[in-house]
From TrEMBL:
<dbReference type="InterPro" id="IPR002129">
    <property type="entry name" value="PyrdxlP-dep_de-COase"/>
</dbReference>
<dbReference type="Pfam" id="PF00282">
    <property type="entry name" value="Pyridoxal_deC"/>
</dbReference>
<dbReference type="GO" id="GO:0006520">
    <property type="term" value="P:amino acid metabolic process"/>
</dbReference>
<dbReference type="InterPro" id="IPR015422">
    <property type="entry name" value="PyrdxlP-dep_Trfase_small"/>
</dbReference>
<feature type="modified residue" description="N6-(pyridoxal phosphate)lysine">
    <location>
        <position position="314"/>
    </location>
</feature>
<dbReference type="GO" id="GO:0030170">
    <property type="term" value="F:pyridoxal phosphate binding"/>
</dbReference>
<dbReference type="InterPro" id="IPR015424">
    <property type="entry name" value="PyrdxlP-dep_Trfase"/>
</dbReference>
<comment type="similarity">
    <text>Belongs to the group II decarboxylase family.</text>
</comment>
<dbReference type="GO" id="GO:0005737">
    <property type="term" value="C:cytoplasm"/>
</dbReference>
<dbReference type="GO" id="GO:0033983">
    <property type="term" value="F:diaminobutyrate decarboxylase activity"/>
</dbReference>
<keyword id="KW-0210">Decarboxylase</keyword>
<dbReference type="InterPro" id="IPR010977">
    <property type="entry name" value="Aromatic_deC"/>
</dbReference>
<protein>
    <submittedName>
        <fullName>Diaminobutyrate decarboxylase</fullName>
        <ecNumber>4.1.1.86</ecNumber>
    </submittedName>
</protein>
<dbReference type="InterPro" id="IPR015421">
    <property type="entry name" value="PyrdxlP-dep_Trfase_major"/>
</dbReference>
<keyword id="KW-0663">Pyridoxal phosphate</keyword>
<keyword id="KW-0456">Lyase</keyword>
<dbReference type="GO" id="GO:0019752">
    <property type="term" value="P:carboxylic acid metabolic process"/>
</dbReference>
């Protein structure tokens, strides 16, 4: 058993006392975490009032610090018992995955060394690792030698970055206007983005931040499988052009948040070529399927896109946050480049030093590429393919089980690993069942709206889920539903 730490050093260093304190803190934390895991449930069930009461009893910033040992005891009492257990096979509410063990080890490494990914002299080996991982990703998604990419905090930041590139590309090449220097053109209120009506809400948020507003986002109707309706899109483009509007970008969703539906990339590329539009793929959900030989064809050829959002904290099972934006034409990153004498000096870059700040919306940025570097080498293509095949196979099994039971209704056949369904009956019944599972059965599932009615959702990102477990959960849902008045 570790000795109590009487005086906590500030940092890890070369001194034996600092090393011992570091080792002790990590060992004690690991012991506290593992001791807190006593069952297979996803959540102990505490409600909002109970958790807010716990926080009300804590002095967040005392006059004098209580020391490490007291803080750890408070964490063991207040925090650890009330965490959501993302590794539980009872957790399937959102695109929120468990974290592979090797990626947790990488989090310890990158947090300990605390590199900042803006300039080479703040992150020497980290910069080179990110460059190497980005190059590998560009090959994986069929981008050519002129491509590039950058790590981001996740899908929303990747999509915002991509739409910024798309806007500036259109303004420069079509309108002859430099947004970077002069701001938005006078016709900015006529610029339009086209995306599925069930696409991620970061499209509207990005349009707001880009000064275009929500009205710039044209939400395209979807077909019976919740994919963008190509006929409706063509009609909208034609009508908008007649109205004097300026279409500049189409966003293909490669795995919608609720349904996992996939927009047809090849058809969208042809349309973009015909209308001189930028094509972005929001593949935050579906990007991991590129590693599956069994299901990769469902994505289409993402190399046809001008940019791709990739998220590693979804189907790749890496810790939050970890995303990337890949672009086919690396020169477009000039949009984000601005040199500062204190950071990314031009003479350094001329001598071969890579300063990644020139590709990112962020300045200070975490070394998230290490998680991908370690996990890719640890698991390999076959390991990730097995994970993804299992999860998509589980979704297909669950959908079939739902279809064969007249007490359930299935929204659509899943393309990825999300299954949206409901108990036959009232919307209120389905809402109550989800709450009952959350607070009294340690089961956390999702809820959404499909065709105006409340539906339940299983987002299957855990390869340890079995068919038997899915059958048991369906039985439990039916039992709880029968008890709702």
């Amino acid at each position: 058993m570790s000795k109590p730490i009487t005086k906590l050093p500030y940092f890890l260093g070369a001194e034996s006392e600092a090393k011992e304190a570091y080792r002790t803190i990590i060992d004690q934390t690991v012991e506290a975490i593992t001791s807190s895991v006593t069952d297979t449930g996803a959540y102990k069930g505490a409600g909002v009032d109970e958790l807010q009461s716990l926080m009300g009893q804590t002095t967040i910033l005392p006059q004098a610090g209580t020391g490490w040992d007291a803080v750890l005891e408070e964490v063991k009492k207040t925090i650890l018992p009330n965490f959501l257990r993302t590794w539980s096979t009872n957790y399937m509410a959102h695109l929120h995955s468990p974290a592979l063990l090797e990626s947790i080890a990488s989090e310890l490494i990158l947090s300990t060394f605390n590199q900042s990914m803006d300039s080479w002299d703040q992150s020497p080996i980290a910069t080179e690792v990110e460059v190497a991982v980005v190059n590998e990703l560009c090959k994986l998604y069929n981008f050519g030698t002129d491509s590039d990419g950058v790590f981001t905090s996740g899908g929303s930041q990747s999509n915002l970055s991509a739409l910024t590139l798309a806007r500036d590309w259109y303004c420069n090449t079509v309108l002859g206007h430099d947004v970077k220097k002069k701001g938005l053109p006078s016709c900015y209120q006529r610029l339009r983005i086209y995306t599925s009506e069930v696409s991620h809400f970061s499209m509207e948020k990005s349009a707001h931040l880009l000064g275009l507003g929500y009205d710039a986002v044209r939400k395209v109707p979807v077909d019976a499988l919740c994919r963008m309706d190509m006929h409706a899109l063509k009609t909208m483009l034609s009508d908008d052009l007649k109205e004097g509007l300026l279409p500049f970008c189409i966003v293909a969703t490669i795995g919608t948040t609720d349904y996992g539906s996939i927009d047809p990339v090849a058809q969208l590329r042809a349309l973009c070529d015909a209308y001189n539009l930028y094509l972005h793929a929001d593949a935050a959900y579906g990007s991991g399927v590129q590693l599956s030989q069994t299901y990769q064809s469902r994505l289409g050829n993402l190399g046809l896109c001008d940019s791709i959002t990739v998220d590693f904290h979804k189907m790749f099972l890496l810790p939050i946050s970890c995303g990337a934006l890949l672009i086919k034409d690396k020169s477009q990153f000039d949009v984000f480049t601005l040199h500062a004498d204190y950071l990314n000096r031009e003479e350094d870059e001329e001598d071969g030093y890579t300063n990644l700040v020139g590709k990112s919306l962020q300045t200070t940025r975490r070394f998230d590429a290490l998680k991908v570097w370690m996990a890719f080498q640890c698991r390999g293509k076959d390991g990730f393919a097995s994970i993804i095949d299992t999860c998509i196979g589980n979704a297909a099994y669950l959908a079939q089980a739902i279809l064969s039971d007249n007490q359930f209704e299935l929204a659509i056949a899943p393309e990825l690993s999300s299954v949206v369904f409901r108990l036959s009956g009232s919307c209120e019944k389905n809402k109550q069942v989800r709450r009952e599972l959350l607070h009294h059965h340690q089961v956390v599932i999702g809820q959404t709206v499909y065709q105006g009615r409340t539906y339940l959702k299983f987002t299957l990102l855990n390869p340890l889920v079995t068919h038997q477990h899915l059958d048991e959960l369906l039985s439990l849902i039916k039992k709880l539903g029968s008890q709702v008045q």
